[in-house]
Write a structure and sequence with these properties.
By secondary structure, the protein is an alpha/beta fold. It has one domain: HUPs (Rossmann fold, 3-Layer(aba) Sandwich), CATH 3.40.50.620. Helices cover 27% and strands 27% of the residues. The chain contains 6 helices and 11 strands. The protein has helices at residues 37-51, 69-78, 94-108, 127-135, 188-194, 235-244, and strands at 2-6, 9-11, 33-35, 57-64, 82-87, 112-116, 138-149, 152-159, 162-169, 172-176, 199-203. The strands form 2 sheets. A 9-stranded mixed sheet has the order 9-8-7-10-6-1-4-5-11, with helices on both faces. A two-stranded antiparallel sheet has the order 2-3. α2 crosses α5 and α3 crosses α4 (127-135). The chain is globular, with a radius of gyration of 22 Å. The N and C termini lie far apart (63 Å).
Length: 249
C-alpha cells in the first residue's frame, strides 16, 4: 500500500505573527517556519503503518516555495521514504492544492492519502474534503484512531457529540486530529539519512492547472489587546460594579 502524506510549511506556532506595515497581509520576513502540527501527526501515522507492515512506501509532498524542502526533510527524517515538492511562489487556495495533489495521486498510484485536518495558519479545513471529492474517494475527517485490515479502514472520528466510528474502502483520504498519535522526534542519525533520501522538485506550471487566486486579502490586523480585569472584594461590590456598566444590569 502506497501512502501519500501532504505536509505544509507554516509559521512556527510559538512565534507572534504581525501584519505588515500597510496591513495588506501577514509579515513573514525573518519569521521562523515549521511543519504544520497536524501534518506531523499525519506523517507519524504513516510511519507507524509502515512499521506495522501495512504501508509499503511513504511519499511526502508539499506545495510552495523552494524553502519548503526543509519541512519535507523533516518528514523524511521521521521515516518517510521520498519527497515531492511542487514548487511555486504563488499563495494557493485549498482547491488549487487539492487539484495538484490529485495529479500526484494519479501519477504515483496512491492507495491512501493522509493529511492534517487543517493548517495552523489558515485553519481552512478544506483540502482533504476537496481532494476526496475530486477523486471520488471515501473520506474520513478528524480521525483520532485508525485500523486498517486488507482494503478496509475503520476510523474513529472526533465529532461534537463525542466519537463516531465509520468504515471506508481503500483508496481513501483521511485527515488527522490531535489525539491520533504523538509525533516522534527525529533522531540525529535519521536527520543525516534524510539528506540522502530522494526529493523530487516539480514546477507547478508542469501540471497545467489554473492556479489563479479567487480569494483576495482585503486587510490584516492584529487582534485587540484584552484589557486587564479588576478584582472585587465581595458579591455586593461586584453587583455595584455591574450596575455602573451600561446594559449589564
Amino acid at each position: 500500500m502506497k501512502v501519500l502524506v501532504m505536509v505544509k510549511r507554516v509559521t512556527d506556532p510559538n512565534v507572534t505573527i504581525r501584519p505588515n506595515t500597510d496591513s495588506s497581509d501577514v509579515d513573514l520576513n525573518n519569521v521562523k517556519m515549521a511543519m504544520n502540527p497536524f501534518c506531523e501527526i499525519a506523517t507519524e501515522e504513516a510511519v507507524r503503518l509502515k512499521e506495522a507492515g501495512i504501508a509499503s512506501e511513504i511519499i511526502v509532498m508539499t506545495i510552495g516555495e523552494k524553502q519548503s524542502q526543509e519541512q519535507l526533510r523533516t518528514a523524511l527524517a521521521m521515516g518517510a521514504d521520498r519527497g515531492i515538492l511542487i514548487e511555486t511562489d504563488a499563495t494557493l487556495e485549498p482547491l488549487n492544492i487539492a487539484k495538484l495533489a490529485a495529479k500526484v495521486v494519479e501519477q504515483e498510484q496512491i492507495d491512501l492519502v493522509l493529511l492534517g485536518k487543517q493548517s495552523s495558519d489558515k485553519d481552512n479545513n478544506q483540502t482533504g474534503q476537496m481532494l476526496a471529492a475530486i477523486k471520488d474517494w471515501g473520506q474520513a475527517t478528524f480521525a483520532s484512531k485508525l485500523d486498517i485490515k486488507d482494503d478496509k479502514v475503520t476510523v474513529t472520528r472526533e465529532v461534537d457529540t463525542g466519537l463516531q466510528v465509520i468504515g471506508l474502502n481503500l483508496p481513501a483520504v483521511i485527515t488527522c486530529d490531535l489525539r491520533l498519535n504523538t509525533p516522534r522526534f527525529a533522531s540525529l542519525p535519521n536527520i543525516m539519512k534524510a539528506k540522502r533520501k530522494p526529493l523530487e522538485i516539480k514546477p507547478a506550471a508542469d501540471f497545467a492547472i489554473d492556479l489563479t487566486s479567487r480569494i483576495k486579502m482585503l486587510h490584516a490586523e492584529s487582534p485587540q489587546v484584552r484589557e486587564a480585569g479588576e478584582m472585587v472584594g465581595s458579591v455586593k461590590e461586584l453587583i455595584e460594579k455591574l450596575k455602573t456598566v451600561e446594559g449589564v444590569l
